[in-house]
Structure formats: structure tokens, C-alpha cells
Amino acid sequence: MTTVQQLPERMRKFIKNLHIRKIRDADQKFIAEGPKIVQELLNSTFTIELVVVRTDVVETQQELITTLLKLNIPVYTANNYHFEYICDAKSPQGVVAVASFYHQLITPVTSFIALDGINDPGNVGTIIRTAHWFGVQTILLNKGSVDRYNPKAVRSTMGSLFHCNVIETDLQQTLTEYKQTHELYGATLEATLPIEECEPQQNFGIIIGSESHGISPVIRKLLSHEYTIMGAGLAESLNAAVAAGISLYHFTMFVE
Amino acid sequence: MTTVQQLPERMRKFIKNLHIRKIRDADQKFIAEGPKIVQELLNSTFTIELVVVRTDVVETQQELITTLLKLNIPVYTANNYHFEYICDAKSPQGVVAVASFYHQLITPVTSFIALDGINDPGNVGTIIRTAHWFGVQTILLNKGSVDRYNPKAVRSTMGSLFHCNVIETDLQQTLTEYKQTHELYGATLEATLPIEECEPQQNFGIIIGSESHGISPVIRKLLSHEYTIMGAGLAESLNAAVAAGISLYHFTMFVE
User: Fold this and answer.
1) What's the pLDDT score for residue B192?
2) Is B253 an interface residue toward A (CB < 8 Å)?
């Protein structure tokens, strides 16, 4: 196909269904919204299956469309109504891609960040983006958390998802292995060790728990150190992505 | 009123309308969702006008309801359908309050954070929450940004909104005044001064711009220092709330 066609009805349904995790897992496909994120997909090892462009932005997205067609990636148009139907975001920028899962492997890693029970897709996506910023390219998610292909999580990574090792895993088992080679630092509200005093001497793992439940007990037992981000004692807690951001900022100062 | 009544239709409409900024501004009222946030309202100087509880959580929220009724705050019940209609969040926890605006004044402040053109309500709310955590209780928002009473912003503050001075202002004018007494630090992508090397000698202001446009030129001219949060050069930018969090963490280390 070297021309742009109208999105057929059966494909609208197919894309809409990718909002459901079970169907994503079965089809091994996910949606990625926004021209910037589609561009990041193009610059990655991921495979784009198709792209849908909203009719009113076809003209402004001509360059992207030409690139896609040259690569033999099918491009479809959809009117406003149909486009909104297939999208997750309320005000998407008129471009959405369907891409295939890419299976990243747990390889011997340098430092990493692990998320234990973080259920907010925006937070998970933002943490992936922040880890990528600071050069921590392995992000572990425990099974049962928000999946990395959740449309909002994908959007919040701003494309960093396609350049990092984001791995869903049995966190207890994986951390048990990594404990041999890594210092495991967990952020807890009860800790007395201030983050400023943490100075990892070797590769490290940062473990961030959920805002409401913290790090789960089985994981907590595996920690080398519990640390805290001291506040003024006024607010009850920090947002998980902010706590992860401060932690990544601090710990990566010790990476050569 | 000392008993719980069904939410009348005209009030459903009234609450639903508070999702619109113009109407909030005209009525000087806003909605705050979730039992935790309603509790924080009770512990603040804000006035609660009424509370709506979803029928299925009346039993579990009995303690809160009793407290509200004792304070002569009207409490209404609504079924699932009507409750969803008045709420902003997709899965609200069954409690929503209507409260009155509270006019905070710009008083001579110690240190503060100013947000220039941040349009994501979740980011604005998270930054207020983080500033509160670190004891920076004055947050300036320039006019034209997301308003502090946006339902999602309110939710994201986790109640910190009710305990901080969150002030909408002409940022250029206000910062021109503060420049006499404060060191003004702005996070920019182009700066060469790493945040680690910033050591304020007096009260400071942190200025955070939007992710897409940065700090606006008129504000940038007022800065005492531009700083950057150095990354590994892999990702394009940091999320605004994460950048603000790292900045607050760093700068408050220099507060006595």
C-alpha cells in the first residue's frame, strides 16, 4: 500500500479493543498515541503495524505519513468521531499507531529501578521516562501492576518505553537473584536513613512501592537499605513518580 | 438538617457545572473528590458547603457523615449513576464535597515555587503536594495556567491545596517585586549550571516552566540563575512535576 486509505470499520473495532489488557496480551499489540511517540517508535526496535491519522491533521503530518509509507507501514485516515472512538486520550493530537509487543530479556544489568504495586499508569510511564533521563535503562515491574502497554502509561513515557528494558517479572524472585550483585535500596515512610546519606558502592536497585501500601513485606525483606526522603513533616506522602525522580537523581550521582 | 437526604436534581446540575472553570469562578465554589480530601478540608480554613456520598458507601463512611452533620454541613446521598454524573474521576471513592474558594493573600513570603504555563492539572496538583511536603508553602501560578480548583488538580494535591498559599497572580509583576529579596532560580534545558552547584544564600524562588515551551521569555529575564538537572543525554526532557520535585528536594536542603 502506497496510498492513504480510510480506516475500515473492522479495524476501528480491533484498535478500540486494544484498550483492554487481556486483548493486548492475546494479540501482542498495543496503541501509542501522538506524533512524537510514533516518531520514537520509528527510531526504535519496535515494529509499527499501522498508523491512523485524523483527517484534519493529514496536511500537517504529511512528512510523517511519507516516511511511514516509504517503510511500507499502512496509513489510514479517520474522521474526528471515529478517531476519538479508537483513542484513549481526551485530546489526542490526531496520530495513533498500533505496534507489536517487543520482548525484552532480563540480562545481567547494571543499576535498575523496580516498581512494586504501582497502579497509576501515569506514574508508571513518568517513572520510565525519568529513569531513561538519568540513564537507568532497566525498569522492573512486578506482575499484577499496571502493564507497560497501558495506553496512558505508553503516553506518559514520551517514547522512553521504546528505548529502555521495561520488564514484567516476579519481583521477589528477580530481586532475590540481584541481591547477590546489587545493593537494594527501598524508599519507605518509616525509614530513618535519609537519602542524602545513601552512597552505593556497587550497582544498585531502587525499589519504589505504592503510595497507599508501600513496598510489600516479601520485597521489603530483601532490601539492603531502607531510606526516606525527609520532608518538613507537613504533608502525608510524596507522589510515587516524584519520589522515584528524587531517588534516581540522587543515586545516579554515584554512577561513573 | 441533621439527616441525610437524597441529592435533588437541581443540585446535581449545580455540582456538574462546577467542572467548568467559568462557573467555578462565578460561583466561587469548587468540587473536591474522595474521603481523604474531604477530611483535609475539614482540617483546614476552607468552608465545606455540602457533601455527597454514594449510596453504597454510606455505611463505611458513617463516621465522616456523623462529623459533617454535627458541623451542620448538609450531606446528601446519590446512586451510582447520579454520583458518576457529578464526578470528574473515573473511579471516585464515593465521597465528593463542594467547598468555597478561599482567598489567600500574597504576604511577604520566605521561599516559594512559581509555575509558568503548566497546563496539566495532575502536574500542578502534584507540585503543590510536593512543595507542601518540603515545607515550601507558597505556590504561585501565573494567570492563564490551569486553575488550582480544577477537579483533577485538587485531587492530585491530596489535600495539600488546603494548607498552602496557592496564589494565581501576574507572575511577571510579582517576580519583579520578589527579585529584590529573593534569588530566583529557573530550570531550563539550555542552562549549563548543574542544580548541584546551586547554593542559595537567602530566600529563593524556584521557577518551573511548561514541558513544551519552557519558561516564558519575560519571566526568564528576571531570573538570577538558570540551572539544569543533568541527565544521561538519552531522553528528551523530564516531566514538570518530577523536575519540580528534584528542585524542591535540592533547594530546601539550604533552608534552615
Assistant:
1) 93
2) yes
Residue with the three cell numbers 474522595 = B34
Q: Where in chain B is the domain with CATH 3.30.1330.30?
A: 5-100
Read off the pLDDT of residues B13-67 as tens digits, 9 standing for 90 and up.
Answer: 999 999 999 999 999 999 999 999 999 999 999 999 999 999 999 999 999 999 9
B238 pLDDT band, cuts 50/70/90, is very high
ipTM of the complex in this document: 0.92
Q: Do A196 and B253 touch (CB under 8 A)?
A: yes
Strand ranges (E), A55-192:
75-78, 95-100, 112-116, 138-142, 165-169, 183-187
Query: pLDDT band for position B91 (50/70/90)?
Result: low
Contact of A122 with chain B, judged by CB distance below 8 Å, is answered with yes
CATH of domain A112-254: 3.40.1280.10
Q: State how far residue A246 is from chain B, nearest Cα, in angstroms.
A: 5
Q: By the 8 A CB rule, do A5 and A71 touch?
A: no
Residue A20 three-state SS: coil
What kind of architecture, by CATH, is found in domain A5-100? 2-Layer Sandwich (3.30)
Closest partner residue to B246 (CB to CB) among A129, A237, A249 is: A249
Write the DSSP symbol of residue A210: B
